[in-house]
Specification:
The complex is a heterodimer of chains A (470) and B (136). With 470 residues, chain A is an alpha+beta fold. Chain A contains 16 helices and 18 strands. In chain A, the strands form 4 sheets. In chain A, strands 6, 7, 8, 10, 14, 15, 17 and 18 form an 8-stranded mixed sheet that branches. In chain A, strands 1-2-3-4-12-11 form a 6-stranded mixed sheet, with helices on both faces. In chain A, a hairpin with a 2-residue loop joins strand 11 and strand 12 (331-340). In chain A, helix 4 packs across helix 11 and helix 8 runs antiparallel to helix 10 (231-251). The longest helix of chain A is centred in the middle third of the chain and has 36 residues, at 269-304. The radius of gyration of chain A is 21 Å and the shape is globular. Chain B is α+β, with helices and mostly antiparallel strands. Helix content of chain B is 24%, strand content 42%. Chain B has helices at 20-35, 56-72, and strands spanning 2-6, 11-17, 45-52, 76-86, 90-99, 113-114, 120-124, 127-135. In chain B, the strands form 2 sheets. In chain B, strands 1, 2, 6, 7 and 8 form a 5-stranded antiparallel sheet that branches. In chain B, strands 3-5-4 form a 3-stranded antiparallel sheet, with helices on one face. In chain B, a hairpin with a 3-residue loop joins strand 4 and strand 5 (90-99). The chains are: A alpha+beta (470), B alpha+beta (136).
Chain lengths: 470, 136
Amino acid sequence: MSHTLRIPRDEKRGMRTEVVVYASPALLEHIKRDQSLEQAINVATLPGIVGPSLAMPDIHQGYGFPIGGVAAMDWEEGVVSPGGVGYDINCGVRLLRTNLTKADIEPRLRDVVNQIFRDVPCGTGSESDLRVDSKQLDAVLRDGAGWMVEHGYGHRRDVEFTEEHGAMKGADPDKVSHRAKERGRPQLGTLGSGNHFLEVQWVEQVFDAAAARAMGLAQDQAVVLVHCGSRGLGHQVCADYLAEMGSAMKRYQITLPDRQLACVPIQSPEGQAYLAAMCASANFAWANRQAITHFLRGSFEKLFGKETRLEVVYDVCHNIAKRETHLWEGRKRDVLVHRKGATRAFPPGHRELPAAYREVGQPVLIPGSMGTASWVLTGAEGAMRETFGSVCHGAGRLMSRTAARKGRDAREVQKRLEEQGILVRSETRDGILEEVPEAYKNVDEVIEVVHAAGLSHKMARLRPMGVIKG
Amino acid sequence: MFELLEHTADIGFRVRTRTPAELFEACAEALISISIDLDLVEPRAAWPLEAAGEDAESLLVNWLNEVLYLWDARRLALRRFRVLEITAGRVAGEALGEPWDPARHRARLLVKGVTYHQLRTGQDEEGWYAQVFLDV
């Protein structure tokens, strides 16, 4: 418990529960510099919250909810908040293992990066060759990654190793506005921009040999990490429902310290409609990562031959609200767990896990910042006991984008990374500057905290070789 | 017309103008200048732009959401904005620009949404002001 800070519920009027922050003293210093703790306190005021308002060590200031926040709401009495999911619904991470090694890739790294850059549409305003009509889009929103697999964009196995099998039940395409569909349709199969990226990496160190075997990972093996979400479709769904809830809240007599926290009772018509639209957006995101997987397979086959394999290790979402059953204070509770910049981390034995991972626990994929490490963890019992089966999601930003750009030159950053064996290609110069490694907290430090707290266990540390940014 | 603001994960802007119409025009321009390189866009055609809101904050957020929609869904590279009509709950005008051409135009930051986070707008002794943060 040395890695937690508790803010008691009498800290601020209106708090219904305490705030628990997982952080080391050094990380806490960073955290205190922005408004993230205040935002975690505001989350503690939401009606129907079960257990504490939780903050992970990668927490930073967001909108309404802090990024790196977890809040479980009673399914009958609690509220749902689109801000507790975020604009990028089911922003998440997929890890693919290859049958290649670091040594196979290294001499052809430039070709690999260029090929991926050609095959995976990325950057603002990019569109994919994957065209769906409005009927097909509705099917994508219902069936998620499964739709892609059925239409030739992958294998059945891919879906088995995706959280929720790549499709949330309860998705209703009719609850997604025409505008959201219009915005998202041409963006299906695109990486996007901002902090989204695609990295060719290698397994630098294995910490848990049994889990690594179960996941088919070994030292020096080449892997690919994909980080993206539901694109404009999810962004528009969030905006639509924030607007609707803003006016609905008065009817439900909910007053909040921050308008961005807008929420309604889960059981209200507005709450149910949002959840159906959120599930549809999540499915769009899984379909998107599935399409990108297919494009990547094409890139690798072109360069390394038909025998090249890219297999899904796992796929997690880190912006979502999910109905789950948790044991809390000795009682079985039916809750809606908001994970805003937080990853599900189910322990060994959990029935939601694919049979192959039942003994080792859920793979938890934590992308680091550009040019530093990423991690694979395994979900642990501590997360079930303390954090509603949740853990951190990344390194966590330290510096604003403007500050990151200041005094830096994209070419120099590229050169510095190249000297470390990391090749970066980005659609824009700003894309590189704003994501410089020093703009983020040290991901290793974040991992140490969750490992020591028993929320998840270290499994493998991955190092990037090739970075593709929007 | 506007200044950019710092936010750990994202970006914002602050605008000061003489009139409320100018305020909505300047905010729209600030949003779009974050998304694309304005210098490369020609104001060849105009598209109607309209929003309603039950208070000043939601009117501004809804207006900016309309701008974002024209860019991200309709693929229009916008350059200038003109407010033609403004009342307490409604603002209407037009956006000038041209269809997005990836060969000629340059995208900057991908804006996901317009937020209510630390949103301020109103009038003081120096004129009209707004502060808006965007999720990028």
